[in-house]
Structure prediction request, 474 residues.
Amino acid sequence: MAFVTRRLLAAALLFVAGSAAQAAELTVSAAASLTDAFKEIAQSYEAAHPGTKVLLNFAASGALLQQIAKGAPVDVFASADQETMDAAVAQKLVVPRERVNFVRNTLVLVVPADSALGPKRLDDLRAEKVTRLAVGNPASVPAGRYTQEALEAAKLWEPLKPKMIMTQNVRQALDYVARGETEAGFVYGSDAVAFKGKVKVALEVPLATPVSYPIAATAGAKDVLEARRFIAWVQAPAAQAVLARYGFLKP
Amino acid sequence: MHPTWTALALSLKVACWATAIALVLGVAVGFLLARRRFPGRELLDTLLTLPMVMPPTVLGYYLLVLLGRKGWIGQGLQDWFGINLIFTWQGAVIAAAIVAFPLVFKPARAAFETVDGRLEDAARVLGISEAALFLRVTLPLAWRGILAGALLAFARAMGEFGATLMVAGSIPGRTQTLSIAVYEAVQAGQDDVANTLVLITSAVCIAVLLTAGRLAPGRVGYR
Prediction:
């Protein structure tokens, strides 16, 4: 019995020790649209900084903010819009001077690659043939907020609302269009590049506010220097080239 | 109606339908597997139990691939009947019914297996038809186990989240069930909305368990 107890204790200790970070770990929470590019950038960062493990956490920017606000141990936060980062600053989760814009994106209307539908203007979405529109939920998804802004400017938000399928993040909207579950959807230009062959861009949506991505070390970062190093890495030419390859524009 | 009540009504509607479907199919299949011997019986049992073990997201993906507009079943339904299940509450019912099915089917099979064969034989000797035998002897004897399963199925269907979100989406008033509404509220940082929803959900679950305990003869399910 004592033997078993000792074994259990040892196992429990191992578990606790294992969950505490041994090597340097950098947790990066990034907007869902950055998924592919950041995976590649994190790999190159790890290769250049042996001993550091980059943990990537992707979701809608709003969801990431909520996680950080509730105490998630995040070191770097990259949001797809200024509004979410503003909220992070207002809640003192991010120090304003750590914040920098590192990349830009476009908002596009996509349709399935085999779609015969060719909306030329946003107004064409009123057509009966368009029964469903995939849009990120504006309450937590920046792409949805940009879409709402553009559609409200065109006086189309209310008329199109009954057709909208609100998604949890921009990649879910992209996936629904790619599967043909919705006739069209609003995503970023970079998303359309990632799903080339499955979706095609019908038009670029004109926006009053540019889609500019801010990145910052969080106030609770375990190692601010390491966080800053990663942010500098993202701004360096090599990482910017990766981002450009995935359809992002220079800041 | 306030959005919270719409979500609650929808959750109850989906859970009731899903439980009803799971109950009918679960009892039928449970009886079949308990009484008939055929090759591949245990394999079928394993396959039917899978939804209980598999992550709901895996199930949601299967359903999206099968029932979607370009899916094997979805395309046929669309072309022949004009039926589309994705982003509808009926889609949510299917997701919840599949997840809840093993919870009825497993205890039903076990209950039918423990029914005393001599009682059934006695009824047969007295000249009862096979249908009446099932309805008036076998089913009443197995009922407690089945009811316990149905309760769990209802609870599971109420709480279904992953598969439902993938198949039915989150359309307020149409497919946004309580559990999805909670998730959305937390994501958007609306803690006050989340608090209300969470309290309502908890109250409903407690009410369901209490009523079930009252209704069931001899306190079924949780002793």
Summary: The mean pLDDT of chain A is 90. Residues 2-104+210-245 of chain A form a domain with the D-Maltodextrin-Binding Protein; domain 2 fold (CATH 3.40.190.10). Chain A has ten helices and ten strands. Chain A has two domains: 2-104+210-245, 107-204.
